[in-house]
Amino acid sequence: MSLVTIRVWGQPEFHDTLSIAIERLKAEKMDTVVQFDLPGYGLLRSDTLIGIGEVTMFQVHYLVYWRKGATFSQKFVEYCTKDCENLVFAVSLPLEIKEDTLIPWFRTHIDTILKEDIYPYIYLQRYKGVDHYDVFRPSHTPTYYIRICTVTEDIGKTVDDNDLQKEVRNFPENLNYETNRRTSLSILYHKLDEFFSILDKRFRF
Description:
24% of the residues lie in helices and 38% in strands. It is an alpha+beta fold.
């Protein structure tokens, strides 16, 4: 049975539930737990949750973890129904992933990933005959959060999708593009994004 709880606006229980779930997995000696959060900005949209129905989504978080030689995943959502009088958060049932390649790849590259960061989108432009560097930072940017938990580590990584672009419209090329593209952290981000995009409609509540 999945967890579904109604809360009053402004209360922090949703993040508490996510943290408790991770701590429980760590207590069960899971040696690999990865949390993947979608950006909050722009997420307010209609969606259908199996077992719940049509909702308006506010937050989406995913977990993927390794248990007894198998990969499992869960989806954590915060949403409201038609009147949006209260926010509701729900946790999907654990979903076993057959023939998974994500966790084995992750376990092979974990030491490198923990040491890496994604560099900001920096571009070169000329102003009054002088070259200078600027950082591309729009007012709203799609920032993803990845939390990595192992037996000895618990580290959070943020990934701004713009920083992984070679160039964005009307701006010069990202000078950190090649450096970022080659990182294992960048590869992990793309793997997680693809992994959960494929799984998304399979989660049941």
